[in-house]
Amino acid sequence: MTVGSDSDRLDRLEASLLSAMISMAPAGIHLGCRIIRADDEKRLLPEERSAVTTRDRDARRASGAARHLARGLLENLGHKGIAIGRERSGRPLWPAGVVGSLAHDGAVAVAAVASNRAIASLGIDVELVAPLPDDISPLVITLSDNPGTIGAGVAGRLIFAAKEAVFKAAYALDGALLDYDDIDLDLDTSLARTRTGHAAKLFWCLDPRIVVLAMIPGGDV
User: Fold this and answer.
1) 192-218: buried (b, 16+ CB within 10 Å) or exposed (e) per residue?
2) List of the chain residues with pLDDT < 50
3) DSSP calls for 72-125
4) What angle do CA 206, 208, 210 make, to 5 degrees?
5) How many whole angstroms separate alpha carbon 41 and alpha carbon 169?
6) Cβ within 8 Å of residue 125, ≥6 positions away
7) Is 175 left (phi over 0), alpha (psi -120 to 50) or beta?
8) N or C: which end of the chain has fewer CB within 10 A?
9) Pairing of strands 210-217, 199-205
10) Residue 159: count of CB within 10 angstroms of its CB
């Protein structure tokens, strides 16, 4: 009975989060989520197993869940059964003509993919709905950030997730390593700017997980 109840709870979490993510997604961007399961490391394709070299089982499970999820999303763009490798930096390798991003916390994997016709880059992050620890907040939030009307209990965590997503999107374009104070956020306008000259549009949900998508427009137009 307990196992069944846990399974039902996780299924509800997955369905609820997927609904929230779809609601926030702009047209043309495909988003998905997956509860990380005990055998998800087995979902890595042979080429992916070679690329994901960590021996940590939890990390391999998370990678397997995220890549399995992303492969399903890629089918919407006409790419079926594509292995998602990784660069030496750890950034996922996407098929030609595709931009995307992966993320996970301890229990949930998320993914975003889109055509690069009008989008230069994507970044995504997922976090628990919880305040940012007091010792981390000063490192993440600067005077240049505008939290807008977001409640104090989650604003810090949202800003953290947004900066992680923006970092991924910007890094995919120029490989620059940004610190938190290299990214300025305005949650009122849903915009972010980096000291390296990139401007990103932000999309997010706050329940049942904080998920932030950063989109840098451009692409092959």
Assistant:
1) bbbeeebebbbbbbbebbbbbbbbbeb
2) 1-2, 221
3) HHHGGGT--S----B-TTSPBP--TTEEEEEEE-SSEEEEEEEETTSEEEEEEE
4) 40
5) 26
6) 103, 161, 162, 164, 165, 168, 211, 212
7) left
8) N
9) antiparallel
10) 25
